[in-house]
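pls read this protein.

:::
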Amino acid sequence: MPSCHLLRVGAAFTDVDAPSPRSAQRALFILLLASLVVVALVFRPLAMALFLAGVLAMALAPLHRKLTSRLWGRSRLAAGLLVLGVLLVVLAPLVSLSAFVVREAAEAYGFVTNTLRSQGVEGLIAHLPDVFERPVRELLEHVPAAKDGSLTETVQEQVTAQGGSAAAAVGSAVAATGSLLFQGAMMLIALFFFLVQRYHVVQWIDEASPLGKGHTHELMAEFRRVTTAVLRSTVLTAFLQAVVALIGYVIARVPAPFFFAAVTFFVAMIPAIGAAAVCLVAALFLLLTGHPIAAAFLAAWGILVVGLVDNVVKPLLIRGGVQMHGAVVFFALLGGLAAFGAIGLLVGPLAVALFVALLRIYRRDFGGPGPPDLVGRPALDAPGPG
């Protein structure tokens, strides 16, 4: 009897101490959220590179498959060639352009500072084009000089006072270029991995995802369709903007118009700058060389014609590759650009496509039929008979 009594008491304590399935589920969910936060912090510095690598891998997957078959099944070689192509076509021009802008800005600041120190304001004015020399002299006549000092000393004091800010700006630009190099290198490494191991990655995501069987593949197919449409539209729109800008360069008689058109093509793929910026730079060059009418024409051409191509043609091209209304695509592009910056041109349409795909899957698998009284009734805006 005592032994039986002890067994009953032990069983009672065991039942009391054992956690309920609900509390165990709650604790596991909290740990899952905590681990998700830690993983997000770990991958946050590389989020942009990994996202772009995933987008490019989805878009280049059909080309990688064809190239692999042409190379007798050498998947790694095909992926390496595609990564090299992305490096030469996309990253190298962007990095070179960023380094060129930073170098020219630093040299310009150094030239202005050295000229002021050695030759004064008069020496700096002497280097200006003839069209600007007289207006600048008239403007400087109204600038008050410092007390007990000349105008040259006043300007030198202002330049010296702003030297720290200018140096900090140049340093920030150099740091941004270095960050671009790092993110580009990480993106190329991730792109190679995604291309070679994409089947295993998709299988791993499908097994780890809580969605139903086949849902992950359906969502990724939607992602691939949207990313391909966005990338194709970006390249085609940049090419069209470069052609339209080339017409303006030829009409305005810009020196080396094909060079400026090539720069326009690459800059057009940077949403934060845009193709119209190159037209404005070329217009400023014309103005400095004494061609104000051509400069005004080119500035208007870049803003009204070249800039309009991006706002009109890109939504139409994206609409042809995704199942979304043109107005939805347009506002998704603008909203994504405003919320996430340049990467928002991809995130915006992808977010809308993800929402539409999830809604379609939910209605198909769990929604069921609509209310009986609404089935077969015409839409509110449907035209009546006759």
Notes: Residues 75-118 form the longest helix (44 residues). The two ends are 93 Å apart (CA to CA).
